[in-house]
Amino acid sequence: MGKRYAMLIDLRKCVGCHACTVACKSENNVPLGVFRSWVEEQEKGKFPNVSRLRLPRLCNQCENPPCVKVCPVKATYPLQDGEIIVNYDRCIGCGFCISACPYDARFINQERRTAEKCTYCNDRLAAGLQPACVNTCVSGARVFGDINDPNSEISKLIASKPTTVSKPELNTRPQTYYIGADEKALRPNLLEIIESGILEKAGGEK
Amino acid sequence: MTTVNFFSINREIYWGLFIALYFFYTGMSAGSFILTSLGGVFGIEKYKKIAKTGVILAIVLLAFAPVHLIIHLAQPGRFLTLLYRINLTSPMSWGVYLLLLYPLVLIIYAWFLFRQDMVRGLDKGGFKASVYRFLLFGKTDMSEAAKENDRKKQKLFGTVGVPLALLVHGYTGFILGVVEARAIWYTPLMPFIFLMSAMVSGTGLFAIVLLLVEKFKFGKINEDIKLLIADIANLMKWFIFADAILMIVYFITLWYSGETSYAAAYYFLYKETGSFLGIEIGVGLLLPFIIVFSKKGRQSITAVVIASIMTIIGVLFMRINFVVGGQRIPLTNGQIPEFAVPGWEVGAIVAIAAAAVAVLAFIYSIMPMNRPGVEEKTAKTNSNAKEVAR
């Protein structure tokens, strides 16, 4: 059996420093305003009973990726190790993958003028390094490895701890696992957005 | 338990007006072709006389529709890649070949439709005759056998054209319909909703274009065309009815579905009230339905034209609401993405529309639009009329 790379993020250790966001931007030369990897933050509850929810997000490198299915020119495809890459010489920039991704992981790089996303720092992997966000994480919250190897750190953690993924109901079989993720953080709180009228405040009118 | 989002990223709505306008153009092309093929293909005699007007409209609209897509690409120069690198699981890939095949069949169909009239136009001389001579490729045979062959080929290519028209617009429904991430798009009804709104807007546009062509080519609107317009308005009534039923069924089930579907329905009904309920449903479906519901409304040319314009506006808003509105519902936590239309996009859309109108006007003015019983108004017939008057 070959390798199957995946990432596990232990939110009990995440301090919300956004160092992963910065490391990713700098490593992959991501233009201003768009992100391959970012951290969403929310506040839950009312004072004095409040807590802070953090959810680092990146491409889930799905096993059943909707973006690969809809690409009209086969410019995006999974590698043998499981990471999904974009062939920048093939991409025509139609945006179908951006519309189809349930995790907002894709965007158009306006400088290269193609679709782009996290590739687990594919070039670093080839050089035997860890992805930049894993490498830089101050608290060691990010664990990256091969889930086909039962003795890897990530396999041991997934086997022994309760983990969750974002939107499992979509059958995308996402490969970013979270320990301690709040249900409210894993998907948008649409009903709450409606009830509290955040939609209007955020410019809901056209 | 309340939560407050206070850090996330801004997302861009990447599929904007260009995509909506593309759906709008292909829809009207398919709609007007299906309507005008009722004569030749389904044997409804009175629709035979408008087949020529309809097929030209369908071809020109379809020729301009993909221009929106190509401009919208981040790498417009790479659009040819679509032809040779095919992904069978991508509806966009299916569309590439439909968008080539459909106009090709329509052009062959149109050629057989126009052939005899072009041959008759040859002896008139001038620019038109030289265009006809070029288009005929030397096929000037006017024997009974050749005419019979024309009829057979019209029937054949028209019959192939109808399912192609259904597919060329049905597939655009799948472009949205296969995206599971977006609740408002992800429904098996989407191709049918798209097809029904295509019939509504195609009928509307065709009624207007038919009146204009009759007016400019023959100088007047004949009784038989007036009757036909009333008939088209009657069909429009049923298309609007079917479209509205699909919408109602869809929104009832959305309301009782999961969180994302409910939120999408809520967003459309309460946050996009003006453009969804107001323009798309009110102006686009309800008011025209009221107009064409009464026999009096159907028989008045003015009323039918007003109803037609309203359906076209309504369907345009439907395309924009579904394409853009579908992307405004957040997928991850954070704010609703802003939708801004850059000025150059509006300029490009207006320019494409103007070019389409110019090309349509040119083709209509140059092609022989004669139909049984009505002769084209030419310098010769005008002078004849003058002599008669004297």
What is the share of helical residues of chain A? 25-40%
Helical percentage of chain B: over 70%
The second-level CATH architecture of chain A is 2-Layer Sandwich
Rg of Cα set of chain A: 17 Å
Q: What is the CA–CA distance across the termini of chain A?
A: 51 Å
State the CATH architecture of chain B: Up-down Bundle
CATH fold-level label of chain A? Alpha-Beta Plaits
List how many beta strands of chain A DSSP finds: 9
Strand order within the widest beta sheet of chain A: 8-1-9
- Could you please say which CATH topology of chain B applies here? Formate dehydrogenase/DMSO reductase fold
Report the end-to-end length of chain B measured between terminal Cα atoms.
90 Å
Secondary-structure content class of chain A: alpha+beta
Question: Number of DSSP helices of chain A?
Answer: 9
The succession of helices and strands of chain A, N to C, reads EHEEHEEHEEHHEHEHHH
Please summarize the sheet with the most strands of chain B: none
Shape of chain B, please?
A: globular
Q: What is the subunit organization of this protein?
A: heterodimer
Q: Name the chain pair whose interface involves the most residues.
A: A-B, 64 and 59 residues
Uncertain segments of chain B = 379-390
What does this structure look like?
The complex is a heterodimer of chains A (206) and B (390). Chain A has helices spanning 19-28, 66-70, 96-100, 122-126, 132-136, 153-160, 183-186, 190-196, 198-201, and strands at 5-10, 38-46, 49-57, 76-78, 84-86, 107-109, 114-116, 142-146, 176-179. By secondary structure, chain A is α+β, with helices and mostly antiparallel strands. Chain A has one domain (5-201): Alpha-Beta Plaits, CATH 3.30.70.20. Chain A is globular. Residues 198-206 of chain A have low confidence and may be disordered. By secondary structure, chain B is mainly alpha-helical. The N and C termini of chain B lie far apart (90 Å). Chain B is globular, with a radius of gyration of 23 Å. Residues 379-390 of chain B have low confidence and may be disordered. Chain B has 14 helices and one strand. At the A-B interface, strand 2, strand 3, helix 2, helix 3 and helix 8 of A face strand 1, helix 4 and helix 9 of B.
